[in-house]
Amino acid sequence: MDIDDTVSTPTAPPAPTLNIQRTLGPNVPSTTKVSDVMANFRPMKLFKREDVKDTKSKPSVISIDFDDPGELCITSESDETLMIYNVKEGRHDKKLLSQKYGVKLAKFTHHSSSILYASTKENDAIRYLSTHNTSFIRYFEGHTASVTSISLHPGADNFISCGRDDAVHLWALNVKNWVGKLNITTPFLSAWDPSGNVFGIASPWSFTILLYDYKNYAKGPISEFDLVDKMPSPRAADNLATGWTTLAFSNDGKNILLGTRGNAHYLFDAFTGDLKAILRKPEGGTRRAAAGEARNETGRRLDSSGDCCFAPDGRYVLSGSRKDVLVWDTLGSPAGDDKVLEPAYVLEEKREAAVLAFNPRFNMFASADQELMFWLPDPHA
Prior knowledge:
- By secondary structure, this protein is an all-beta fold.
- About 0% of the residues lie in helices and about 40% in strands.
- The protein is built from two helices and 29 strands.
- The protein is globular and about 55 Å long.
- Keywords: Nucleus, Repeat, WD repeat.
């Protein structure tokens, strides 16, 4: 269904249904400790784009997100489509097409029937869509260059967007115009701490992570971490210059994850900014561009919504790679003065995992390059 010409409507989407079952069919219950099953995750369900007949022009997945109840998964793809999947049934449910404006960085709001996504053509507006009746609720216009990050507040209908126009906008879903703005050099990534009281902005050009008090952001950052100064040696900083892919807080609020497209990700203390570990990727990074990197339609690499994330318990970090999925145990002991931490587990899957997201409610995660894969713990492992 083409959504570009649907009539905008001011009505809000219906309230989310909280009829949540606590198991994924016959598989491991969602209440099982992540640490008990992390080594047993296996690729269980591959979704192929049956509507694409020409295998040479197969689209790529550029973002993955789950709704709050964990029952739905959405992807935005390079052929300007949005694909929605039913997690518990392991089923593709809906395809939406936005050929006029393009799609990327698709995210559920706190209502499972409404989403946000950034444009890739025509303009740089963020679009607020009701998937219930495939009508646009609102356009958020303000960025004058490509949007690089959209981060939804963990407990309210507010969100942050970052762009290549060196602007950070703060928005409320029920207001068309931005409610706050920060001007920062290359503010390409954003993230909320789990309380929603603090948000972070990552600037790869200045090698800094800035933390703001949400209620007093206009006063400037409450913390400014110069990541080069936090490195124990020049060699440890090598991957900081390769492009940044992900910024995330752990669910306990203690750690910050900075993903790069180089040979390592970085784990920092969320309060002091001190380096806790360099998460080494033995096979190197994926082939996707980092957030904010220049690209065009004739050969530049696609970007993504991020190739690494925390597991819901905050203990484990998962990352895609050119093959397989890597898992680090943050309670492990880093080696040497450079604090290098090797993967605790390698979850085998021969496809590249260029985009990765963990379900917030169930013990499952999804990875993708050109095809979406659902991963579940193997109950027989």
